[in-house]
Amino acid sequence: MTLNVRKVFVLALCCVILVTLTVAPAAQTRSRSQSRSRSRSNSGSARRRASSVAQTTFTCKDRTTFKVTSDNLQRQPFATQCPREPVVDLEARAVRGNCSGSTASLRSSARRCEWNKTCSLPYNTQDRKMRTTEDGDYYLCTEQPPAYYEIKYNCLKRNADVKHVLGTVQSTRKAYGIIKSHTMYPWSYRNGDALGNLTFNKPRRPAGLSTLWITVRSLAIKDTDVAFLTWRNNSHRNVNVDAVTVITPAQTTYSAPNVDRVTLTFFADYTLHHSEINGPDNGFVFCYQWLSATARLRKGSACTRILQPGRCRAPRGSRGGGRRRGGRRQTNRNRRQ
Q: In which domain, by residue range, is 97 found?
């Protein structure tokens, strides 16, 4: 009897040891798994918080206008959001109440952004007061600290041709593209390069192209400088030059019908001092596009084919002028009711 009791006791002890050895590792595994899960959850929350902080630096005034407060710009520079191609036509202005204008460094920062695939607009300690005004009383506005900044820009579309004129003699056979007056645009062109020629040859494909359209995007040159187009109409083959057209701010779109070749010439005849590099006479930007004889430009501009406005998409939860899909759906539901 005593022997049987001892056997039962030993058997029970072995069972307890076996259960302990089996359950303990599983508990440890569960504990480690829960710890890793909590760690992942915490790191995910941290990433979401960081992402939220990075995305709340702007709101949307409208679909193409970004609105950045001075406080947010001091914490983090504003970054453009072009997919792959360079930034073009970046406009930034400082605003406070009824006052809007520019600051000491804002104009230069905006110019440095252009023609770069990646760009950020930083806050500068010199930006504490407005120095120029577009709207509002000059004497009241020029000493005001900006409350926020409004930023707009365009993105160059993929595969668009980019050429400059001054100081070169070159040609292109692309169907559409953008032309700069000189390599440093939008900085003013310097003394030295006085002449440039760019020839547009009719593309071989697609077939049927015969009219070159040119749209003036920006034109700011000295009165002593001139940009003009020359071409020969195919119906007048015995004439060397059929047309000479001077490009002026009074006209935004030019067409050369029934042609195989058009030449743009830019003549600059003045000496630029270093102090004028950031001046108003900074050159020009033209868009061009070849079309068939009966086709017309989309929205009346060759730039529509080449430039795409930067779209403002406000982060979730931010309050601004941007349109919200949820709000639109709610409005539609209310209308149905």
A: 59-156
